[in-house]
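#data-curation
PF: Archiving a pair of folding outputs for the training set. Convention for this channel: one message per protein, sequence first, structure tokens after, nothing in between. First:
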Amino acid sequence: MFKTKSKIALVSTTLIALMILVGCGKTPNPTTTTPNSSATSIDKKTISAAGSTALQPLVKLAADDFMAKNAGVQVNLSGGGSMTGLNNVASGSIEIGNSDVIAPDELKSAGLIDHQVCVAPFLLIVNKDVTVDNLTKAQAADILSGKIVNWKDVGGKDAPISIIGRAASSGTRLNIEKVILDGKKITDAAAAQDSTGNLLTGVAQAPGAIGYIDAAYLKDTVKALKYNGVAYSAEAVISGQYPIYSYEHMYTKGEATGTVKLFLDYIASQEFQDKSVEKAGFIAINKMKK
């Protein structure tokens, strides 16, 4: 009788132990929080970016790479100038506004978020018939403001100076006015082109012409000038010897998510920065001395 009771007790104890083990190994109920998949995955097949024509060559390189890595995704890219890009992204008509300048306060209040992607150096360029090779800041400012109108006044031959610039919406123009003219305006006598490419062509074709472009557009059809005796190079920008440059921005309205975030993340990635940024005539941000 005692043995029977002992066996029953042993079986009961074993069953209880098994039930406890099964309970401990039970899979927990899933959490009710659902991650926002659109923040890190493709959520739309087509996105649009517009604005700075200075930044456009680099964004195109990134777009081509990104589309090759993400079949079926289309990145539409256009120029129009920095302010055009900023206004369009603020209105919601595009996803990304490319800009050579920081968005003004009235556009920041629309919820624009800044994504710095690289540094763009700018050059003063002249027609190849111009014999001057260097301009000081004062000389460049006097030319661009219309005070000096003949190359002989800065050591060149007796020939009129024609200025070929960009429209008021251009971030390149705003940076040239900021760095060289200390915020003053380029003369109204300057011809205004709607893109950096057209400006380059204009300077190449007009005797005595001067203009300004970002380094990525430089071709042997024109001559780049030294500035304060310093020729442009990436090393000269990084060391602080060459001051004509700007940080390049890609603005979104609100935080970037989905396809837009993935595209911006790719541009900022070490892979793209190392492979393409300097090759395209720009400078990686992490190389700049703060």
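PF: Second:
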Amino acid sequence: MKPQTIFDKIWSNHIVNENSSGESIIYIDRHLIHEVTSPQAFEGLRNNKRKVRQPEMTLAVPDHNVPTTQRNQGIKDSESKIQVETLIKNCKEFGIPYFPIDDLRQGIVHIIGPEQGFTLPGTTLVCGDSHTSTHGAFGSLAFGIGTSEVEHVLSTQTLILKPAKNFLIKFVGRLQKGITAKDVILDLIGKIGTAGGTGYVFEYVGELIDNFSIEERMTICNMSIEAGARAGLIGPDQKTFDYLENRPLSPKGKDWEDAVKYWTTLRSDKDARYDKVLEVDASKIEPQVTWGTSPEDVASINSKVPDPNLFKNAEKKKSVERALNYMGLTPGQNLNDIDIDTVFIGSCTNGRIEDLRKAAKILIGKKINPAVRAFVVPGSGLVKKQAEEEGLDKIFLASGFEWRDPGCSMCLAMNSDKLEPNERCASTSNRNFEGRQGRGGRTHLLSPEMAAAAAIKGKLFDVRKI
């Protein structure tokens, strides 16, 4: 048998059938759903008089539309309320496990999956959400799907797909002090662009990845989609097993022992073939911040806003001009001189307990700039509970941050947390498209530590100087 990558191994283990055109029917082990991309799928099931094939293999939670304040008053926005109520109704009718808004386990879909042990190495996992790639941190082949595919998985527990190509991203060298997983993935996206991974599944390797915690690996895999990849993968190791052991939905007893024995085989073979390989020198990475309206519009905090005239490609030059006009920035402006109005710490990229700990560490004994509004949105009720047990909420509150309930919040402005036109935000989320955080809102992506520094200084600022 020829050497295989981890992607090859998971893919071949899940083929139900394949045809001469290269398409395969792939078995799907796990399915996560939320209130935004599932209503039409359930309606399709009803119209075609179909059942959910394996309800216990799907897990549902509201996250995109839920309020992060005054939750006891219910959902005030009528459209959001209808979407959440529809999810409740659909899950009840089709027998799908559901975490309601007042359940401690409720949270962002990509945070609750690993928390519950629903995400496991070697599985295929899908969700009607772009950032499903997050789960690749556990050695799960995880990717986002469209609404019609959500219906297909609910009905058949399979998908019809063509295999992706293998892209090895190897990190060499050690990070400088103060550089984070968010800086690493933003730097990578800046290097290869938002289309650099199109048609590929990334596999991340190197001493840097080995040394990262599981939560840092989740940040890396989360933003694989922003580089165009279908998914991101990291081979499971002892850290993975330690994280998953004794989780509510993880295997138990003999099943756990058998699972770990299998999971240890999920490493790419020594002579496995890759379609593309990129080596990245991690020692040269500095704190990153985006300046434009795409995740690839990113640079070191100590650099300047680029001049569109320096881009030889006419289309790129035009897109940079448009981005700078939207962002209200001028070429040559120092990134660390840009004043900000709002700071958002949260999202499926950086709403986990380690993210909150790191931001709180910067804020201890400090006050945020009085001109800044800042809030923290834990990624789940369990993250919030743990943070409060550790006293992190008190640090945030004492510094001037608001402490809120879990949800997607200002990552995508489908709820009441939105930017006003021209309001500038330092955000730990994953996308900075026009209007992503609110119509006319201006988003700068960065790490939780950099977000805390921005809140203190009232501007984008190199956290290493604090």
